[in-house]
Amino acid sequence: MFEGRPERGAEVVLVGRSNVGKSTLMRELTGKQFSTGGKPGVTRSPNHYDWSSHDFVLTDLPGFGFMEGVESGHREAIKTNIVHYLEDNADSILVGVVVVDGKSVIDIIDRHSGPDEIPHVVELFYLFEDLGIPCVVAVNKMDKVDDRDDRLDEVCDRLGLYPPWKQWQDTIAPITAKRGSITPLTEAVRTHLHDAGRDDLFQFF
Ligand SMILES: Nc1nc2c(ncn2[C@@H]2O[C@H](COP(=O)(O)OP(=O)(O)OP(=O)(O)O)[C@@H](O)[C@H]2O)c(=O)[nH]1
Ligand SMILES: [Mg+2]
């Protein structure tokens, strides 16, 4: 189990595969440097960022999926811990942000789709739905994607959302975290915070 979650009544979580840019996005949102890098699996336990004056915490959960130098049993354990974390804290979590790498997400989803297999990203998306937590898919590294609209339509398709993606801007947010270009994400998050009656948290997004 993940330890050390600060006692907070409101939370936004970032979750996604290793190396998609969660820590980079966290840095953009908070202005604080978190350890990032090309080496997958950098984040092994949650990074909580909280503001002592506010009843709010932003959490960067560890990456799952491929992690160099991490054996498969441990990898599964991390995934199980993430699911438990989301279930245990579902009452406080106002928005779940699933971060994906726009360059590779479709290949990865298709590689892991089969009669007995559902890709982690799709599974997470539905887990948030089951838990009643609004979910935003931050499609990161858009600087590396040429066929932008086609790619985003494909992401919708794989998640069971009818294209075109532009009608899902509360759910699909194309960003380039590395360059600080994250407005589609902050606007989507704000929409869900507003729906939850929490405009007071706009200051963090
Ligand atoms: N081209 C490009 N690279 C990015 C972008 N965002 C992050 N990266 C790079 O992707 C790599 C991984 O970023 P991290 O933020 O460490 O990824 P993470 O999801 O926290 O990874 P784990 O901690 O392993 O789960 C780094 O080399 C980043 O510089 C982006 O928008 N575009
Ligand atoms: Mg990280």
UniProtKB/TrEMBL annotation:
Residues 8-195 form the EngB-type G domain. Gene3D superfamilies: P-loop containing nucleotide triphosphate hydrolases. Keywords: Cell cycle, Cell division, GTP-binding, Magnesium, Metal-binding, Nucleotide-binding, Septation. One of its GO terms (molecular function) is GTP binding. PROSITE patterns: G_ENGB. One of its GO terms (biological process) is cell division. Its cofactor is Mg(2+). The keyword Transmembrane does not apply. It comes from the Archaea. NCBIfam families: PRK04213.1. Belongs to the TRAFAC class TrmE-Era-EngA-EngB-Septin-like GTPase superfamily. EngB GTPase family. PANTHER family: ENGB-TYPE G DOMAIN-CONTAINING PROTEIN (PTHR11649:SF13), MSS1/TRME-RELATED GTP-BINDING PROTEIN (PTHR11649). Necessary for normal cell division and for the maintenance of normal septation. This is Probable GTP-binding protein EngB. It comes from Halomarina rubra.
